[in-house]
Amino acid sequence: MAGEPQADCLFCKIVEGKIPATVVRETETTIAFRDINPQAPTHVLVIPKVHYPDAASLAAAEPAVIADILREAGVIAAEEKIDDHGYRVVFNTGAGAGQTVFHAHLHVLGGRGLQWPPG
């Protein structure tokens, strides 16, 4: 059921502490950790502790949590010292957009020039 941990979800297992991650921040509603396949010098994922398959379903069900994720992205950018030079935040929604883990998550990318449009 949406909002509840899913036994087969990689990110739910990270939230539960069953799979290790390099955690950089944690709040009551979110956890942020380094991407294992970074696409920039700074590449951190911010996820909700509740399970929703994508950003759209999370926003519809729990808009305060998606706001928490965005707020954390700004805090992480400042802590990683990429806020002055610019950084990108990305929600991939659906396989066609590159989403590979179907638990809503935000990518925080920075530390190098980021071209537009993205690849």
Strand and helix map with partners:
Blueprint (H helix, E strand, L loop, with lengths): L9 H6 L7 E4 L3 E5 L7 E7 L6 H7 L1 H17 L7 E4 L15 E5 L9
Antiparallel strand pairs: 1-2, 2-3, 3-5, 4-5
Would you kindly provide a written description of the structure presented here, covering whatever features stand out?
25% of the residues lie in helices and 21% in strands. It is built from 3 helices and 5 strands, in the order αβββααββ. The protein has helices at residues 10-15, 55-61, 63-79; strands at 23-26, 30-34, 42-48, 87-90, 106-110. Strands 1-2-3-5-4 form a 5-stranded antiparallel sheet, with helices on one face. A hairpin with a 7-residue loop joins strand 2 and strand 3. The termini are far apart.
Compact summary:
25% of the residues lie in helices and 21% in strands. It has 119 residues and is of the alpha+beta class.
Portion of residues in beta strands equals: 15-25%
Shape assignment: globular
Name the helix and strand elements from N-terminus to C-terminus, one letter apiece: HEEEHHEE
Helix content range: 25-40%
Radius of gyration: 14 Å
Helix segment tally: 3
What is the number of strand segments?
5
Oligomer: single chain
